[in-house]
Amino acid sequence: MDSIVVTGLGIVSALGTGVEATVEHLLAGQSGIGKIKYLDTRHCSLPVGEVPMDDGQMRELLGISSEKAITRTSLMGRIALREAVMQAQLCSRPSRKVSLVSGTTVGGMEKSERFYHDFLQNNERNEYIALHDCGACTDMIAHEFPGMFDFQTTISTACSSAANAVILGANLLHTGRADVVVAGGSECLSKFHLDGFHTLMILDEAPCKPFDKNRNGLNLGEGAAYIVMELAENAEKRGVTPLCRLSGYANRCDAFHQTASSPEGEGAYRSMMAALECAKLQPSEISYINAHGTGTPNNDESEGKAMMRVFGTNVPPVSSTKAFTGHTTSAGGGVENVISILALTRDFIPANLNFSEKIESLNFVPVLKVQSHVQLQHVLTNSFGFGGNDSSCIFSKIQSV
Amino acid sequence: MSIYIQSFSHISTQEPLNDQWFDAPHVLSERFNPCVEPDYRNWMPPMETRRMGKLLKRAVTVSLDALQKGQCEMPDAIISGTGLGCVENTEKFLNALLDNNEECLPPTPFMQSTHNTIGSQIALKLHCHGYNCTYSHRGASFDHSLLDAFMQMQLHQIHTALVGGFDEMTPDYFNMLGKIGYWRKMELSVCDLRCQGHSGSISGSTAATFLLSDQRLANTMCEVKAVEMFYGQDFSRISAYVNQILKNNGLTTNDIDAVVMGLSGDDANDAVYHRLTASVFQDIPVLWYKHLFGESFCSSAFGLAVAAECLSHQRIPTGLLYSPDSGKTEKKPCNILVYNHFNSIDHSLILVTA
User: Fold this and answer.
1) B33: which residues sit within 8 A by CB, 6+ positions away?
2) How close, in Å, is residue A70 to chain B by CA atoms?
3) pLDDT tens-place string over residues B249-283
4) In chain B, residues 9-48 whose CB comes closer than 8 Å to chain A
5) Residues of A in contact with B135 (CB under 8 A)
6) B320 part of contact set with chain A, CB < 8 Å
């Protein structure tokens, strides 16, 4: 099958706006997690990874008037989409069939939870009723470039949504239904999410410690990130330089429990193995794994065991970057795809912050300090969601022929 | 590569888990139309369903039924569409959160609130480790699920798939959508959905699933020849896509025995369908389904069901004809086109043949 290349990246997270801010923080080992500043919640002591802008600042950045009804998920999505589209030069070097595949789970909930009593009791906030659902968020994000997309859809598989957007994107390209696909996700913090994760008792009250023996849960984050994908020949025709290849991808289901992962990481194992098979790679060829690594006791052990099943005693360098960004839920796959591609193309491995002690049942420790000037060939990134929706993507360097 | 519909199952505003609606449907006359529930004890032990939301019970049951009817034990993929996800659980958690000011909240409604709870509950019940994905894109959620399955079969990634559409309607969500024009202002006894000059439709409830496979079997209902989805307001593109699909399959409009459309009684929604009928589909019988199943984000699944059942029964019952006097229904149908749009921007065309 023809090879798929990535020609644009866009990201906004707790690390700031854009790939450069992201790389700077990753190289400096500077986390974006801190005290809650923008979300109006009583759990204000919980650490989170908020995008360092309020809605007004995002509107200003995008040139959207304060009168227009729009959700925070859509605002963040538009910021990331704009960067990705610009890098891929989709405006100046257009393609005929461009698709947008975006992931989200709570969509416009952050506004709905604020205006819910209005929705039910009066007509003050009716314009937000139609913006509540997931699809509405994607449509609002796409409006950043009116007329650009001839297919738009929304994937909602919780924390693996953005990774699954990439998988659908690959199939749209391989069946010729799209020439270019912009794939990723967007999700803002909401009380609904924060309280939901809180009731499940999986939020750490301190900065999260992925893959640490004494890890105590995750920190929620928010953000948006997209990658621009196209067949190599389409990129060549458009005259844009590919950043890397999307060489493998897979979606498998743990089918174990609604919110917990199986002890041996069955879904994770299957999704990594299937992605390797799709990429026609041996496990030993993977140079870095950007793990799902949420920092919950359950995920990290389960994912770690799955890695041991795939890689045996030679688990490649692993880090979870969630201690930088927080767990950005539906955007997570997008944020980590972008981080993985940045690592691959700029030859560094981001650190797994806050680690001090190895998990006894695992045979590896994560990367403790950022490693620069390393040669990476193939990077694997995992995104796992509630309901056992597990997906893996592999990005590879462009081979010089 | 040929792709077939092996079976269909539904729990909706009609009699559940059978095709009674095809010849003897319930006539809907209310603005809010509740779901007709089957006896779930026939499908799952009460212990298992006790904590399951209604939509989840429906989704698991229609999946089991479709697999049984299609004689398949384990599908390669489970692909679900839902416009609004698990609304009942979302409202439960949201109300508790607002009423109790974020304290002492119950975890179960949150756990069962995410849209992909539906697909993952089906996977859990079947122990299915294969591809599992959920689309939530308004009125095209089911259609995009079908597109995903269709492409994966074209690319030989899977051989069988459960493809479903699932949406429930709660009284609160009904009222909220009513405020932004989703429903008729008066009961249908005054004026049915075919009367023009009205806005809004009637609400329905959708749990509908299809078993797809790449093999023709003895009980195969029909073949899915083409699945095309696109976004945009340009009307001329709809006819361009229709012509392209027909050409790709060696057909002309004369070969199309019926067109199934998402006519809902809402003037703005129906205008696109009427325009298409007057231009591209002149003299072709128009079938509809929202008068039987109501409007919900995934109701377009019933459009495909109408086409599949007509091809499988080899006849078109008059109750499905939008204009009962439109004739030409004596002939055994062979090719049926299903066209749906949402807000005139998300378009879906599906060609099915006997």
Assistant:
1) B13, B202, B203, B204, B205, B294
2) 16
3) 999 999 999 999 999 999 999 999 999 999 999 99
4) none
5) 153-156
6) no
- DSSP annotation of A315 reads P
Q: Which of chain A's residues have a Cβ under 8 Å away from the Cβ of B85?
A: 134, 156
Please give the domain boundaries of chain A with CATH numbers for all domains.
4-238 (3.40.47.10), 248-396 (3.40.47.10)
The structural domains of chain B, ordered by start, are 3-213 (3.40.47.10), 222-353 (3.40.47.10)
**pLDDT tens digits along A262-283:** 999 999 999 999 999 999 999 9
Looking at the complex, report in whole angstroms how far the Cα of residue A231 sits from the nearest Cα belonging to chain B. Answer: 16
Please tell me the distance in Å from A138's CA to the nearest CA on chain B: 8
- Min Cα distance A180 → chain B (Å) is 14
Greatest Cα pair distance, chain A, in angstroms, is 66
Q: Do A150 and B127 touch (CB under 8 A)?
A: no
Contact A389 B135 (CB under 8 A): no
Helices (H), B29-80: 46-49, 54-69
Identity of the amino acid at A377: Q
Q: Touching check for B174 and chain A: CB below 8 Å? A: no
B249 touches chain A (CB under 8 A): no
Please indicate if any CB of chain A lies within 8 Å of the CB of B170: no
ipTM of predicted complex: 0.98
| Residue B119 · residue B141 · CB < 8 Å | no
